[in-house]
Amino acid sequence: MPREKTSVSREDYLKAIWEMVQEEQEPISARLAEELGVTPPAVTAALKRLARDGMLVVRRDGRIALTRRGSGIADHLAMRHQLAEKLLTEVIGIDWTRAHDEAERLEHGISPEVEKLLLARFGAEGYCPHGVPLQGGLAKLRRKHGAVPLSDVVTGQSVEVLCVYEKDAEFLKFLSGLAIHPGARARIRKREYDETMTLAVGKRTIHLGKPATSRIWVRALAQ
Predict the structure, then answer these.
(1) Which of 90, 128, 134, 194 maximizes the CB count within 10 A of its CB?
(2) What are the CA-CA distances from residue 149 to residues 47, 140, 165, 199 (Å)?
(3) What domain range includes position 163?
(4) pLDDT at 85 over 90
(5) How many structural domains is the chain composed of?
(6) Integer Cα distance of 179 and 208 in angstroms
């Protein structure tokens, strides 16, 4: 698909909306303002421009939906971000906990030529360091592997970590210290009333609260 030229601001809005849909959050103006660190009036003005250009629709109840055109651009932006993360971690050697923030700065400067070379190097069917497919995002993990948040898993079930929330470097450092990363396996030993979970990860027993378990996507393993 030919790359459609958009401004950095537009790219940020489209990718943020796409990510909310991937994470099964309802895209609304208030969430966008918080995510992008801008004022509600700025969000309103940006959404009007994007709607005018056929990239999204703002429904009467305030929900935002990407059009086919907007979704295609956002898919491409997300892939470019993940390619930047792979370049940073697999070639340059940046720790996976820092890759997202560095890729946010790098992704906008990737030319079509460099993008083509990165795809040739890493392949289009790969995954970013946090476990998200280069094509299809988290939705692909749900569709192909039955990915669910760890918070939804029942006691006694063994799981494999598929991907983790990537936008919070401190959260990633916390997970790294517990040996939780894509590919790690765990068994749910106990769920408390407050939704704190006790897990066995290797020879370790760890405890995670709902703010953490809702940001880790897993697949159930055969018992």
Answers:
(1) 128
(2) 30, 14, 11, 14
(3) 146-220
(4) yes
(5) 2
(6) 13
Structure tokens at 61: 């109840």
CB-based contacts of 130: which residues, under 8 Å, 6+ apart?
85, 96, 99, 100, 163, 164, 165, 166, 172, 182
pLDDT in tens, 156-211: 999 999 999 999 999 999 999 999 999 999 999 999 999 999 999 989 999 999 99
Where does the pLDDT of residue 32 fall: very low under 50, low under 70, confident under 90, or very high at 90 and above?
very high
Residues 160, 151: contact at Cβ < 8 Å?
no
Q: Which tokens in the block code for residue 134?
A: 């280069």
Residue 64 identity (one-letter amino acid)? I
Reported pTM? 0.87
pLDDT tens digits, 209-223: 999 999 999 999 987
Q: Two tokens at 78?
A: 């997300």
Residue 15 pLDDT greater than 70, yes or no: yes
Let me know whether 117 and 193 are in one domain: no
Tell me, yes or no, whether 76 and 123 share the same domain.
Answer: yes
The domain that holds 193 is classified in CATH as 2.30.30.90
